[in-house]
Design a protein that fits this description.
611 residues; alpha/beta; Rossmann fold; eight-stranded mixed beta sheet; six-stranded parallel beta sheet; 22 helices; 19 strands
Length: 611
Amino acid sequence: MTTFRGPLLVAVSGPDGAVNSSLASRLGTLLREHGVTTVALPCHGCFLCRRSPVPPRVRDAGEPEGDEWARRASDPERRGPRLRRAHAFLEASGLTARIGLARLLARARAHGGQAVVLTDRGPLDGLVRFDLPASSKAAAAFRRIADGYGLTLLVETGPETLRGRRTEEIAGPPTVWWARYRSWSRRLPRIARLDGERPLSLVAGTALERILDEAGKRVAAEPERVAAGERRHVVLSIYDDVGNPAHRGGGALMAGKVARRLAEDFQVTVVTAGRRGGTEDRNGIRYVRLPVGRAGPRAGQLLFLAALPFVARRIRHDLWLENFTPPLSTSFLPLATRAPVIGIDQGRGAEAQQRCHFPFLLVERLGLRCYRHIVTHNPADGAVISRLSRRADVQVIPDGVDQRLLDKAELGAGQFILFLGRIDTWVKGLDLLLDAYGRARPPLDLLLAGSGTPVEERRLAALVAAHAGGTEPRIHWVGYAGDERRRQLLRDSAFLVMPSRHETFGLAALEGMSYGKPVLHFDLPALRWMRDGGDVAVPPFDVAAFGARMTELATDTALRRRLGHRAGIAAQHYTWDEMTGRYLALAHRLVDSPAAARRPRKRGASWQTTR
């Protein structure tokens, strides 16, 4: 069974353009009286036909001089086949763009209720106007647009009536024009024929019944689908991917864990980025990759954000979880779907706002106001988003970690200082770390484990070379660490350093804590969840203090043992089973009661975690 999402798209088609426009206007008024949000969209020709100055009447040689029909200069019948096909593609593209904007406007006005986008012409009129071969690509473009219409009202008006209304002056001989309508209407879906010879009020009444019936079918389709035993569909979108060397950090790991937990009760699709597009099924989860990776890290992220609203139109879903992607963070996705959308604050692009001369912060704040459900990983970010989007229901759900038995005999041991994370010199504070290490020169070597974009990796290599000094280097960059290598590094490290300028949670720190390792970090609000959990915090970006505490931890085994024991106990409160269970509970709350989920929250809604 074909299902439709979003506003119902209805076209009023037929050879008599004046009657179509009048009927569309009348239907818009009647639908609003019935409480249906309606957006009227005039669709008379492409923008060149509407805006280019052309002679109103152009006659070929031998045509009569009276008021008989004469073709306009913009009439495709006066042009060759190639120009006519190009003209058809231009009109189809313009119609698609106008429909997309009208749907966004209808969703914004409807606030989750019924909405109709009403056009006084549609793809059927375009097919009739250009009369292209059914196998042509231009005809296929109009037919794809017709598949998106929920209903096309074909107002049947006879040739004699058209001739009496002087339709020949616009459309040509009525008999030929009407024959095209009959031919193309048999090839398109969801055509409802109306008797155009009747009074306009009666035609409008019949058309209104057809529209309301179609809208009722769409509303009833969802309970029937659920009653038939079909599982609800949840989509999770994230730019990061474990297969992308530059973006396979904590966000990709979290998304994989959440997707597997949601797959217990839902159909799950993960939309992510890649160098090549395509789909694959893995462990019962469908992965859709958008081919934006070749554009580069920053341009790829922007293309990914721009593509999400269009992808949401093509993937049926009952709930969408969107991981915010820098630099714009939000994609205004709630405007492109009627289903509930949960925004996950994996990183709102604060680093881009501080480093670029573009008002990303303004765009981000406007986008956040579109979301009614947002998940953050720490209370500090939850408080910030609660102030920026006061109607949003903000939940705090931290990351998790795989639990393991803590070996007390190994507490305090370790051979080196470890940095573990994505290579991004400015965001992760690697320049500050190397500067602090070079000043303090603690007795343990420094290992850097992680990967990033080629530009960031070259920048780090240059910094490591500049801080090498001596005949035996004490700073080692080991590159990307897979699962087994990652576990080995955590076991053998003395403690972890996290010199980040910006973090949303710090999953690497939690992993180190689960192995009983202290964590040295700057005292950022987003990292205060570690307080009294075996962490050592220094004033933000104080390089001298960071180096001094690094030396203290490297030389004092007893201190590392005490802090490591405290860290291991604290990590036991952050299990993946509990954290992904909170996502599952939130998904059920929104999907099982869609009316409550779409209702705007009152101002000042709580941002605290629901346990």
